[in-house]
Structures are given as C-alpha cells and as structure tokens.
Prior knowledge:
The chain contains 5 helices and 17 strands. It is an alpha+beta fold. Strands 1, 2, 7, 8, 9, 10, 11, 12, 13, 14, 15, 16 and 17 form a 13-stranded mixed beta sheet that branches. The chain has a 4-stranded antiparallel beta sheet with strand order 3-4-5-6, with helices on one face. Helix 3 runs antiparallel to helix 4 and helix 3 runs parallel beside helix 5.
Amino acid sequence: MTRDAAGPGADAAGHRGLARTDGFAGIESYGVIGDGESVALVALDGAIDWWAAPAMDSPPVFAAVLDPQDGGCFTLEPIAPYRVKRRYLPGTNVLETTFSTRDGTVRVLDSLNQGANGPLPWAELARDIRAGDGAVPMRWRVAPGTLFHQVRPWVTFRDVPLLHAGGLMMAIVADQAGEPRPGLGEFSGEFTAKSGQYALLTLIVADHAPLVVPSAVDVRQRREATGHVVRARLVHPPRPDPGSAGHARLDAELHRRDGAVHTSVLRTARASPRRGNRAAAAWLPRFQASTRRQPCGRPAAVGCYGDLLECVWLAVDRAGAHLDPASAD
C-alpha cells in the first residue's frame, strides 16, 4: 500500500498535499507503528505527532495530534521541497517513508523495536535513514510535550542527549545524523543523507525507571528483528471475515467507538477555555470528516480504520483525563 503526497513547496499537481491547518494534519494522513506496549502516529511529512510511552497509559511524549503548539513532536524531513511515498514493509509493522527531492531520494524506516523475547523494559523508537541516489540534506527535531500543560521539558547533555518531562526520561541515540543541538526543552540537528550511508535516530524512553542507552548497532539489530515480526501480531487483532456475524459485531463496535471519540472531544473542548481545549475543538471536524470517509472493517489509506480509531480514542481519552468533566450534547 503506497501513499503519494507533495511536501512543503513542492508541485502538488496530481497528488494529495501535506498542508496542515493551524498545525493540525488530517487524521487520515497518519501511519501507525507499535511494539505491543505502545503506539505512535507518524504523519506523511515525517512528524511523529503522538506517542504515549513506554506504555499505552503512560504520559504522551508527543501529543501534537491534539495540541500542535505544546503537545510535542519528533520531526524528520528533507530541507528542500519533496514528494513522499509511504508503505509498510511487507509482512511487518515497519513504516517506510520515501522522500524524493531534486537532489536524490531517502528512505526512513520507522519502528517501535522489540527484544528477542518480546517488548523491551523501555520504549525504543527507531528511525533508520537510508539514502538512495544523490545527496539529500535532512533536518530533525525532538521536542517532548508538556504532558497537557503539566510540566516543562528540559534537557541535559552528558554522554548522550537527555530530555526530561515529569517522570519521563528520554535519551537520543544519533548515528551519522548530525550533531544534536540543545534548545529550550528540545534537541535538533541537520545532516546530509548520502548514497551508501545509513543514518539512525533513536529515542529511548523510561517512565520513573532507570534509562538504558543502547548502541546504534544494538538498535539496528533490533530494528531488523522487529521487521521480521508479522504486522498483525503487533498492531492488528484477529479480524473476522467480511459478512460474518463477528464482522457485524466489529462494525458496530467501531461505530460505537467513533461516537465515544466525538463525545470525548466535545467534552474536552467545552471543559474550559484553555489552549489545549481550543486545539481539541479545532481538531474535531477534521476527525469527523476523516472517519466518515473510512469504511469500517476495511484497510484505510494508512493501516486499518479500527486501529487508527483506537489510537485516536486513546489520545483524546488521555487528554480528557486531565480536564474537568463536562457533559456533551
């Protein structure tokens, strides 16, 4: 399954654009990766806008899908205008994004890695950057969010770049990806992806636990091993055949969750006039428009509708948990 789109400033003729409105990307533009413990949403422009780590119910490291200004994100894209294609590597939950510029092409393989015996004690988000032809200048930025306006992230630089947000501690493992530059609660960098060279950006996350910082070699080995795990084992639960009684129950459940998400977003948006709530209110119509276009029980443009809806439901429910309850019409 491949998606085509035009990057910022590119000629978008015949392609679907990547334009964001007030920082929001359409929910249908997200790809889903997971490790059995957590799930991340990756936008077509290479930004990871949602990741609650190291587990589903952990505080969200990135939540720009709900709050582009303070939610946090992990961006990675060419500096020059580009076109992008995306697919899952066959039989895996590894998301491959191919950026094409006038100077060349580069592939980004995104995965949430597992160990030999299943999920790791920490969360490991790997972004493997592989240049095709030519040389492509790239830029990246890791900026954790405020955990829904509860904390202010800060950074330290010891042997590796470290980020802190509440009880979350994060380490960046960068190999051939430029020198990490510290900023206000973030790290960023630039590098040139050249043919025959592999770069790697990895974010390790622990929640109120010791942080283990692996080598780039270890991360790559786990990424390769993760690539051999069947995608259905990581993200997709078993799904009944179309037309069966089980499929009808699944269809009804997805519609029920759809309504739950709308109610939760409305409740969040109406709870108080804080910035995060206004962001949720702006995001609601995009979600409604996107989900109406996706048929239940069938593969959507990126991943499966049910999986995407579940991830969004978790994201909104997570936001609503930190706000005063209010009834929705």
